[in-house]
Amino acid sequence: MAERSTAAVDVADNSGNEPLTAQAAQATSDGVDTQNGRAADGPMPDKDGERTNPAPAAAPELHSGHKLARRYRLEECVTRVDGFSSWRAMDEKLRRAVGVHLMPADHARARSVLAAARSSALLGDPRFVQVLDAVEENDVVYVVHEWLPDATELTAILAAGPLEAHDAYQLVSQVSQAMAAAHREGLAHLRLTPSAILRTSTGQYRIRGLAVNAALRGITSETPQRADTEAIGALLYAALTQRWPYESDAYGLTGLPKGVGLIAPDQVRAGVHRGLGELAMRALANDGATASRQEPACTTPDELAKAVAAMPRIRPPEPAFTAPPEYQHTTYQQGNYGRPTPPGVNTVQSRPVAPPPPPLQSRTGRALKWGVAALLIAALGLGSWQLADRLLGRGNQTGNSGTTNNNPNPGTDDNPKDPAPGTPLQITEASEFSPNADATKPKDAGKAADGNPGTAWVTLQYKGYANFGNLDERKDGSGIVVDLGKVQNVSELDIDLYVAGQQVEVRAAQPSAGHPGSLADFNQSISKLERTDKKLHVTLKEPVQTRYVLVRIAELPADGEGGYRGGISEIKVLGPSS
Question: Domain 423-575 belongs to what architecture?
Answer without folding.
Answer: Sandwich (2.60)
